[in-house]
């Protein structure tokens, strides 16, 4: 392979000879900047019961409220944002089951969103829902009224885990919803919850393979936490449920990233968003303030390791796009030894102003 002249430090070894062969590769994460999201939390509205892990008031810092009050507050807040010249935003209805709200509430919320879309403040509307609340006729009606994306809380495709988590639906319902949502002209999002009762890292591997086959536009990964006041907290205290530990979770999630990215699926979130009052209410579970970036860094390590393996011998060095400089060696340089083990100690890695990576072969 001809060496690009913009990689001078890798194009010569200490003797001035060119390396025999190297490998160019790109990071597989799909392009696309995350939009500014305006979340509207419909805490527990439309829920048929309480899933064992769910603590919406703590996860979203929003107490349950009548839908009329939520809509009135939204209209006031949108009005203020428009007056202040803020935005634009994507409006996101989370925390409940939007597609199962009683009539006429979905229509009323979407009418408000439409009004502000016409004013340029709202660019898109999305919602989260349950797989068993995705009636095709309802989806089509909501799409006609301006809904753009539906994110389904799939959690897992393992029927036994779904049953143990009190979900009240099976994996077939997820597959149906994932087919009916795009058929209604809506974008699809999938939320997975690794580590539910009975779930294993191998189960997550299977979930990811199935997720890729359903081709959602985005995925969110929320490793299961034990939150005070939930049925899961009671199981944890009784010793019948143990969450995944942090290392297991980091490795399992890192393994999930590459196939998702390669399938063109954006991973929009890893881990629960921080909320006031949430942290002290978490009894157990794999969490870390930099969970997402630690997972991304391990996924990148796996990508580089595969390229080193394909090279067939220890590399002479690596040039990496500058935008990965912050995450490359991991949180507190936790991956530095692993890179050194691949033959890429710190001094052999350079960050440069290009979008592709270049793995240099051993000097000839
Ligand atoms: S997980 Fe979804 S359906 Fe279950 S209780 Fe929470 S908001 Fe409701």
Radius of gyration: 23 Å
Major sheet characteristics: 7 strands, parallel
The rough form would be described as globular
CATH structural architecture of the largest domain: Alpha-Beta Barrel
Bound molecules: iron/sulfur cluster
Class from helix and strand fractions: alpha/beta
The CATH homologous superfamily of the largest domain is named Aldolase class I
* Poorly predicted segments: 1-19
Question: What percentage of the residues does DSSP assign to strands (E)?
Answer: 15-25%
CATH T-level fold name of the largest domain = TIM Barrel
Strand count: 13
| Alpha-carbon distance between the two ends | 14 Å
Average of the residue pLDDT scores: 93
**Quaternary form:** single chain
CATH class of the largest domain: Alpha Beta
List the secondary-structure elements in sequence, H or E: HEEHHEHEHEHHEHEEHHEHEHEHEE
Count of separate DSSP helical elements: 13
Sequence of strands across the biggest β-sheet: 2-3-4-5-6-7-9
Describe the structure.
The protein is α/β, with parallel strands linked by helices and 364 residues long. It has 13 helices and 13 strands. The strands form 3 sheets. Strands 2-3-4-5-6-7-9 form a 7-stranded parallel β-sheet. Strands 1-13-11-12 form a 4-stranded mixed β-sheet, covered by helices on one side. Strands 8-10 form a two-stranded antiparallel ribbon. The longest helix has 21 residues, at 291-311. It is globular, with a radius of gyration of 23 Å. Residues 44, 47, 50-51, 54, 56, 96-97, 130, 153 line the site of iron/sulfur cluster.
């Amino acid at each position: 392979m001809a060496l690009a002249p913009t990689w001078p430090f890798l194009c010569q070894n200490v003797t001035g000879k060119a390396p025999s062969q190297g490998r160019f590769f790109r990071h597989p994460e799909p392009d696309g900047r995350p939009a500014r999201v305006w979340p509207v939390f419909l805490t527990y509205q439309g829920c048929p019961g309480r899933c064992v892990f769910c603590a919406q008031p703590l996860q979203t810092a929003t107490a349950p409220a009548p839908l009329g009050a939520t809509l009135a507050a939204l209209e006031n807040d949108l009005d203020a944002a428009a007056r202040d010249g803020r935005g634009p935003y994507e409006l996101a209805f989370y925390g409940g089951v939007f597609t199962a709200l009683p009539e006429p509430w979905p229509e009323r919320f979407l009418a408000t969103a439409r009004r502000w879309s016409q004013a340029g403040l709202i660019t898109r509307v999305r919602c989260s829902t349950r797989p068993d609340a995705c009636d095709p006729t309802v989806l089509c009606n909501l799409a006609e009224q301006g809904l753009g994306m539906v994110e389904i809380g799939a959690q897992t495709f393992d029927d036994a885990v779904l049953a143990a988590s009190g979900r009240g639906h099976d994996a077939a319902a997820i597959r149906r919803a994932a087919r009916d949502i795009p058929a209604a002209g809506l974008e699809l999002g999938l939320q997975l919850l690794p580590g539910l009762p009975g779930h294993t890292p191998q189960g997550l591997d299977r979930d990811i393979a199935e997720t890729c086959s359903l081709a959602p536009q985005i995925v969110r990964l929320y490793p299961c936490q034990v939150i005070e006041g939930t049925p899961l907290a009671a199981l944890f205290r009784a010793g019948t449920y143990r969450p995944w530990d942090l290392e297991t979770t980091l490795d399992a999630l890192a393994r999930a990233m590459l196939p998702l990215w390669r399938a063109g699926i954006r991973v929009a979130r890893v881990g629960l968003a921080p909320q006031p009052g949430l942290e002290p209410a978490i009894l157990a579970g794999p969490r870390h303030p930099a969970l997402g970036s630690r997972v991304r860094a391990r996924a990148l390590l796996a990508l580089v390791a595969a390229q080193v393996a394909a090279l067939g011998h220890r590399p002479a060095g690596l040039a990496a796009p500058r935008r990965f400089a912050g995450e490359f060696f991991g949180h507190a340089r936790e991956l530095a030894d692993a890179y050194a083990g691949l033959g890429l100690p710190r001094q052999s890695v350079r960050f440069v102003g290009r979008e592709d990576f270049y793995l240099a072969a051993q000097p000839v």
